[in-house]
Design brief:
This protein has two domains: 2-174, Rossmann fold (3-Layer(aba) Sandwich); 180-367, Rossmann fold. 41% of the residues lie in helices and 24% in strands. It has helices spanning 15-32, 48-56, 107-118, 192-202, 210-219, 223-232, 240-253, 269-281, 296-310, 318-341, 354-367; strands at residues 2-4, 7-13, 39-43, 63-73, 80-85, 95-103, 123-131, 144-148, 154-155, 171-174, 180-185, 206-209, 259-263, 288-293, 345-349. Strands 5-4-3-6-7-8 form a six-stranded mixed sheet, with helices on both faces. The chain is elongated.
Length: 368
């Protein structure tokens, strides 16, 4: 077991298996390129180790370049143009072998295909140490594959996590921790805040309130806070990527915890998708969306009663209260469907004592 930054990784592929896979690729290349003097293109940053191993096993003459996919702004009509940084020779009418450490989405290969066709190569083939068939959605074939692997997050033998791990001679995969991550919802007056405080202590979870996170970043004038405030000052909604970046920072601050209670996020299906991606990058996922269900008339009476002492004007006006409840149902309807499809939606009766409601929520959490 190793730890890189905030994540733990467990052994996955031994150096012996890696070298065997490289030898299989090299044998095929030697057979097919006998006497052809190819140009090897190692794609940086990750392919430097596997490229060196394949190239030193090549038995004929060859040329070598280590390249990086880059882009620049072209003309108004061409827009963003991609190019190969580090390429020092012409590839026209040459046999080209592109060496990758890993092929997953195939986005890089798609860009390389366009570039190499424009450079009028005689032909080119792709060699990759690792290949993720579950993730690959492109049409261009991967000609030489060392080994197929699941769609796990891996490090080692050129692959990194935020800069670390490339020098490891074997491959490690992200250790998936059993975490309890709750999306907690409830209409105004349902007691969501009270339950969040009880649950975070009972299950040793970190309570992340979107409102609190925004206030902290804005008050402390963090880069994200200043960016968010620039939209708020114009009366605009803060973009999802800014909000998710704030949440990601909060998650990163609390590595190794039992899980999180997300309060006030997500609000849309797109945000729910973004949250899922964020947590999957950390080796976990949303466990459940728990929604407190309370009759509207009970909510109205609770908030009017609370308004007598809270000092909040939106707790003292019944029309405002009813509109807030209406907005809540409109927002959560889409999210309910989102989490129902994933079998993660749980409605919980929010009427009763604090202890009774906690017991109902706990029954859901304990069953996960």
């Amino acid at each position: 077991m190793i730890q890189l930054h905030d994540l733990k990784f467990e052994p996955f592929i031994s150096e012996e298996r890696i070298i065997k896979a490289i030898e299989q690729i090299s044998n095929k290349i030697n057979t097919e390129y006998n006497g052809k003097n190819p140009v090897f293109l190692g794609v940086l940053n990750g392919a430097f180790l596997v490229a060196s191993e394949i190239i030193k096993r090549f038995e004929g003459d060859c040329e070598v370049s280590f390249v990086k996919l880059g882009s620049y702004l072209g003309t108004e009509t061409s827009g963003n143009v991609q190019t190969l940084l580090g390429l020092t020779q012409s590839l026209k009418d040459r046999h080209v072998i592109v060496i990758e450490d890993i092929v997953d989405t195939g986005n890089t290969l798609e860009a390389l295909n366009t570039i190499l066709v424009e450079k009028e190569v005689k032909d080119f083939k792709i060699a990759s140490l690792f290949f993720k068939p579950e993730a690959y959605k492109k049409k261009h074939p991967v000609d030489y594959i060392g080994m197929e692997i699941p769609n796990d997050f891996i490090v080692g033998f050129g692959l990194d996590y935020d800069g670390l791990g490339r020098n490891l001679t074997q491959v490690y995969k992200l250790k998936k921790q059993k975490m309890t991550n709750l999306v907690l919802f409830g209409p105004p007056g349902a007691g969501k805040g009270t339950q969040a405080n009880v649950l975070k202590d009972k299950y040793k979870l970190i309570h992340i309130s979107t409102g609190d996170v925004f206030r902290y970043n804005i008050k402390n004038e963090t880069e994200l806070g200043v960016h968010a405030k620039s939209f708020m000052d114009q009366g605009k909604l803060v973009p999802d990527d800014v909000t998710i970046a704030m949440l990601a920072a909060e998650v990163d601050k609390n590595a190794g915890v039992n899980g999180f209670i997300f309060d006030g996020f997500p609000r849309t299906a797109a945000q729910a998708e973004a949250l899922s991606i964020l947590l999957k990058d950390k080796g976990t996922d949303v466990s459940a969306m728990i929604a407190l269900e309370v009759d509207d008339e009970i909510l109205v009476q609770r908030l009017l009663e609370r308004g007598k002492t809270s000092g909040r004007p939106d707790d003292a006006d019944e029309s405002i209260i009813r509109n807030r409840i209406k907005v809540y149902y409109e927002e959560t309807a889409i999210l309910k469907q989102f989490y129902l499809k994933e079998d993660k939606y749980f409605g919980v009766d929010g009427v009763g004592t604090i202890e009774e409601i906690t017991h109902r929520i706990s029954s859901v959490i304990d069953s996960l």
